[in-house]
Amino acid sequence: MRPLHLLSNAVRAKTIISVLVRYGFEDILQQLETPPGWLTRLVAHKTEGLTTWQRIRRACEELGPTFVKIGQVLSTRPDVLPESLIEELRLLRDRVHAEPFEKIKPVLVEGLEGELEDYFTEWNSTPVASGSIAQIYVARLRTDQSQVAVKIQRPGIYNAILSDLDILAWLAQQVHLYVDALRPFDLPNVVEELRSGLLRELDFRNEAHNARLFNTVNPYPTKVFAPKVNESLSSRKVLVTEWVEGVSPTQGGLTEPERKLLAYNGGNSVFHQIIIAGFFHADPHSGNLLITPDLRIGFIDWGLVGYLTRQRRYFLADLFAAIVARDPEEVVAVATQLTTSHRRLDTVTLEKEVTRILHQHSHLQTGEAAIGRLIFDLLYLFGSNGIHVARDYTLLAKAVISIEETGKMLDPSFEIPTIARPFIEDLSWQRWNPWTRARQTYGKLMASLSRLQQLPEDVQRLLRRIESEDIGVHLYHKGLREFEDTLHSVTNRLVLAIIIAALLIGSSLVVTTEIRTFGLVGYLISGLLGLWIIIDIIRHGRHK
Length: 544
Prior knowledge:
Blueprint: H1 3-8, H2 10-22, H3 26-29, H4 38-41, H5 52-63, H6 65-74, H7 83-89, H8 101-112, E1 120-123, E2 129-130, E3 134-141, E4 147-153, H9 157-178, H10 187-202, H11 204-217, E5 224-225, E6 238-242, H12 256-277, E7 279-281, E8 289-291, E9 297-299, E10 305-307, H13 310-324, H14 328-338, H15 347-360, H16 371-384, H17 391-410, H18 416-432, H19 434-467, H20 481-510, H21 516-540
Helix pairs in contact: 2-5, 5-6, 5-7, 9-10, 12-17, 12-18, 13-14, 14-15, 15-16, 16-17, 20-21
């Protein structure tokens, strides 16, 4: 984010920096290119008795719904954030007041492209749920009198999130440039991924597509389901689905056999989504699950999902196998295949750290380990050592932890290894059976033959370009940001100095004539500009 864009959001940026100073983060801000005078003008009422991670969470809560949502999304990134901060961010909840229906109604009318009465015979103006992005209402359709849930985006939330993401991108860029300890985490790239994920979530058509896709690939429709989407009434800012009559898994009233069955069915569904389908609900915590009277589990809120290609699922199976075998060398070997970075790794140190983590979770052999926690620890270790895995693996870890916590809430004997083993064995058979290997070998052979046939043409094309001198070398310089800023500053001061000199010369010539007033004005302007340059050099010259 360029300084010009920061200034275009100056009011919000100063609010954010003020909150960060209040919670004791001015030492980091002082290392950045914060606009002059902002820190010195802000009065910091620092909080005492809070840990660093608690201060971050409290700052997010004070900065409002956008940063609460950003914090919730960042809680799915154990590869770039320590577990203790992840745990704190997971405490963030949408503590936002509901907008009056009169304010949110125009968004609904725009999404429906018609009046409320044209589509609904009943409408409850009190929302049943209110989050940072949207509010949910209950209504009854005019067409078939069925009850539906209507999710409506908060007015102005899109532009508010864009503005905060711009400021966050600027802060991440400055931290990446000036705070060496945080550079390995590549925070600008994290914020860019965060931006794309949030913008997808702000388009409710993506959530509708995810729910439909799950119902299409779900092999257990009598046990788990997603609410059916009303296609004709849904749009980018409005989502209409069937109303699910059910209770949260945290509520009582279920017998022990029913609780065990629900935990087993939920775990089965999540691991089928992850390992077999490669498409999964990334946040199946108790708040996103409903138990219907006929003991089906409804997965709601499909805004956050993960995708795993077949090859990534194979790597995941290898990682699980290496973890269960407590083989740190194999864990590191698999991790190097998962990374999206080309950075050289210190495998000896990495293996030692993996060994330490595996020993911390040594009760894995007894079948009592929290697999999700172990994956979180490993992903953070990978990220801090430059192994940037695909974001879908971090969503996977979040999904496993969520279903593990919910499963144990229903059934204390619920164990992830027991649930996951049949699916991993099924995936392993799909991967290594003779028919699959023969088909893959045949496909690679045909692809190689096709490339071999194209080779003479490629060589001829290259030779023709060399003959016609149509090949050049392009050089790109990196790391010149600070030099560019210094050059711009020097250039601006030089231009102003030339203008002042011209004014002085012109004023000296004019002041001897009959229109000497213009000469005096010229002296005054040049004096003010010169004074401004002197003040600027005194205040910031040492930084340029």
